[in-house]
Design brief:
The protein has about 220 residues and is of the alpha+beta class. It is built from three helices and 14 strands. Helix content is about 20%, strand content about 40%.
Length: about 220
């Protein structure tokens, strides 16, 4: 290995370590506070990005409508907003998922908000309906997409690979859930906290090996 390649590798490792050291996902309370005076969902995304840029120095750069993410070990991925008043589209830096070398973007399409996972080592993206949670063994992501309208109303488990993430398991309920957030109890158990139709906060636990999971339809 040449001296130049050694220096390049060292610089890339330092850049990754710097981003990892500052990775702090925004809490629910922070998002509410930051977005209190937001004009719309896109503006909320920008307000989150402004703070996350400080927590994740060197990971991304905002240049007008372009959000540029540094890939690893080299390269750049660019996400460009569409400033169309009839159908606006925006991307904002939301978080870094360091164990899988991923970057999470907050995307708004009009007033609909979703997420995009970018894997920095392969420059592959995956569209996600809600903020994902990574399992302790780094093999799975969980998303909970429940709301009154325009949601799939399902708990989903995604298998993580270098070239992306694929939906592996789906669980649905006939009840009208809202404000649902997933977390992992352990590598084999996903937990969902949600608001029930009567307004109470409840919790559901499901093992990945349990009956009742569905296999998603393949495109």
């Amino acid at each position: 290995m040449t001296a130049l390649s050694v220096r390049a590798l060292a610089a890339a490792a330092i850049a990754l370590a710097t981003a990892s050291a500052h990775a702090v996902p925004p809490t629910r309370e922070e998002v509410v506070a930051w977005c209190t005076d937001a004009d719309d969902m896109a503006h909320c995304g920008r307000l989150i990005e402004e703070r996350q840029m400080k927590r994740l120095p060197g990971l991304a750069k905002r240049e007008g409508v372009d959000l540029r993410i540094n890939l690893f070990p080299s390269g750049t991925a660019t996400f460009t907003d569409v400033e169309n008043p009839m159908q606006p589209l925006s991307y904002s830096l939301y978080d870094s998922i360091d164990p899988i070398n991923g970057v999470l973007l907050f995307r708004t399409d009009g007033e609909k908000a979703t997420f995009v996972l970018l894997l920095r080592s392969s420059n592959r993206t995956v569209d996600l309906p809600s903020e994902p949670k990574l399992s302790p063994d780094r093999k799975w992501l969980a998303t909970a997409d429940f709301c009154a309208s325009d949601c799939a109303n399902e708990l989903s488990v995604w298998r993580v690979a270098r070239d992306g993430a694929a939906k592996e398991l789906v669980w649905r309920t006939t009840e009208d859930w809202s404000d649902a957030t997933p977390r992992w109890k352990d590598a084999e158990t996903v937990v969902v906290e949600y608001k029930a139709p009567d307004g109470s906060r409840r919790t559901l636990e499901r093992k990945l090996s349990a009956d009742g999971w569905l296999k998603p339809r393949q495109p």
